[in-house]
Amino acid sequence: MGPRPCDPHRMQAVPLGFELAEADDPRGVLDLRGDHLHLQLAVHGVTAALVWWYDGGSTGRYFAWTHALDEAAAHIAALERPLLGPADPRPLAVQAAAWLACLRPGRYALAWSAGGGGDPDITRGPSPGACCWYGDDGRLVETQPESRIDPAQVDRCAATIAAGERSAIVTLGLWDNGDRFLLDGHHRLRAYARLGLAPPELTIVRLDPPPIDRTDARATLREIQRGNRDLTDWVIREFLAPS
Fold it and tell me: How far is CA 124 from CA 69, 79, 172, in A?
């Protein structure tokens, strides 16, 4: 079946520059759930990553991940995906077909934007793990571990960018949550940062996310907590608190 533009009669108002698309391939393996305080990314129905505000959304966020995020990263890396760029005149649903096909069925909004530049906001270590950060701005959260970054590939990306190529990074998030996952472009992002350039970014936003699975999230966080004592009972209660 594959992704297609949404029926205009079902479209909801979105900011200028976004295009609506619908993914209906039941083989899609990446499922993003959540709300304005929580993100829950799953692969094949298994929680891969959790991002949430704590202390009522006014202090900071936690990022916790499992071995399933490694599986998600490997699945993404195996995609035969084109090097996207904003100069492509085709509808975004067509340009992003490979990405939409790996997502669970639902309604999405897509847009090109100038990335914020700089190094990745939130990097991660080996799985499973957790980290926290402070600040109110939305952050770009990596799905690949730092150990999988190949300096030689960053060098090659930097050379092609310096020669004029402007291939994009791809991110996934929710409409009312400022944080987003970096799906593709971990090496390119570092190359753009080295050159002091902001990368073009294809932003994919899920418009109809299901609520987080709190039972699964609790079990996932307890499992991570066994090897990471910084993930305290209080922090876990903050995640499970009603939105």
Answer: 11, 22, 17
> What are the average pLDDT values for consecutive 10-residue runs of the chain, which has 243 residues?
41 67 88 94 93 72 91 82 73 88 92 63 84 81 89 96 90 90 91 90 92 91 86 82 65
Q: Is 14 strand, coil or helix?
A: coil
Integer Cα distance of 32 and 181 in angstroms: 10
Q: In angstroms, rounded to a whole number, what is the distance separating the alpha carbons of residues 167 and 14?
A: 25
Q: DSSP string spanning 154-212?
A: HHHHHHHHHTT--PPEEEEEETT-S-EEEEE-HHHHHHHHHHT-PPEEEEEEESSPPPP
Q: What is the pTM of this model?
A: 0.87
Query: What are the C-alpha distances in Å from 89 to residues 21, 95, 112?
Result: 16, 9, 12
Phi, psi of 21 (to 5 degrees): -145, 155
